[in-house]
Amino acid sequence: MEVRLKILYTSLCHTDVYFWEAKRQNPLFPRIYGHEAGGIFESVGEGVTDLKPGDHVLPIFTGECKECAHCKSEESNMCDLLRINTDRGVMLSDGKSRFSIRGQPIYHFLGTSTFSEYTVVHVGCVAKINPLAPLDKVCVISCGISTGLGAMVNVAKPPKGSTVAVFGLGAVGLAAAEGARIAGASRIIGVDLNPNRFQGAKKFGVTEFVNPKDHNKPVQEVIAEMTNGGVDRSVECTGNVDAMISAFECVHDGWGVAVLVGVPHKDAVFKTHPINLLNERTLKGTFFGNYKPRSDIPSVVEKYMNKELEVEKFITHQVPFSEINKAFDYMLKGEGLRCIIRMEE
Question: What are phi and psi of 15, to 5 degrees?
């Protein structure tokens, strides 16, 4: 059930940086990072029937086996077999790596390892897409853009004309804002501690900005005052537990829905008064925007092809693979959203 992919374009996501820095997780090295990419299906392993050499594909950091209870459920994309596993650096079939150097194994990352001209992945982690879609653009759909977009359109589901708050204006948060724009939200309030992000966020439909540092009271109170009691929907994309609490408490009682996207520190605890729930606010979580990789991601690519979804505005830099360290520099300095890395010089 394995396939070999020729990676043509990959982009750098903050998750790569987080695990490269090896903060607060098991450091597993040597390892090939990268998980947001586009390429061509090159060769097939035993048991694979639905792909052929030459197919254009996006490798995905989570999977869809199509057999387990989660895959058969219309409500879940948390595949029992192939859901994200940040500690596993080997293939499922035999517990071994497909990469090596001088006889020593190099470990996989998120089942994808796209910072490589060739990679081997489980077929359940591959989305076959429209061959006319430009891989140097749609590669960003394989992780961050789908995560934010899906959190908004699949989970928060803002009604047309509603008010929405987005916490965190990185690539994922801006994809959530884009989802709110597509859904027809009337006000999209961006919340971020970095004022430099505000101007660029307008391109993604953000209409107003709140910097929590500018106020001497909790930001949820600020938003409630701005919106006559709270927003209809909020999506949190920072991973900061205080932002999560604010995102929940800033939605309107009676119908407000808050969706958590960011991944918190493993010791973080979410605290809120139960009356906030009893007053008919809803708190939800989502993983990869509730998209099933094989079933749903091809249709997200079609949204781009039909000009419903704009991905170019997420792409701020492009470098050849030999200059991949520049992509890390851009991200560490907060300069830009997505840097496309061309594998062929």
Answer: -60, -35
- The per-residue pLDDT for range 140-152, each reduced to its tens digit, is 999 999 999 999 9
Residue 339 falls in the annotated catalytic set: no
Is 139 tagged catalytic? no
Tell me the CA distances in angstroms from 99 to 48, 148, 315, 325, 333, one per residue in order: 21, 31, 29, 21, 31
Six-digit token string for 300? 């997200």
**Per-residue model confidence as pLDDT tens digits over 219-233:** 999 999 999 999 999
Rounded to two decimals, the pTM is 0.96
| Domain CATH for 231 | 3.40.50.720
Q: Are residues 215 and 97 in the same domain?
A: no
Q: Which of 139, 143, 237, 250 is catalytic?
A: 143
Tell me the residue range of the domain where 233 lies.
146-287
Q: Is 13 a catalytic residue?
A: yes
In a domain, 300, yes or no: no
Which one of 42, 71, 139, 163 is the catalytic residue? Answer: 71
Instruction: Determine whether 35 is an active site residue.
Output: yes
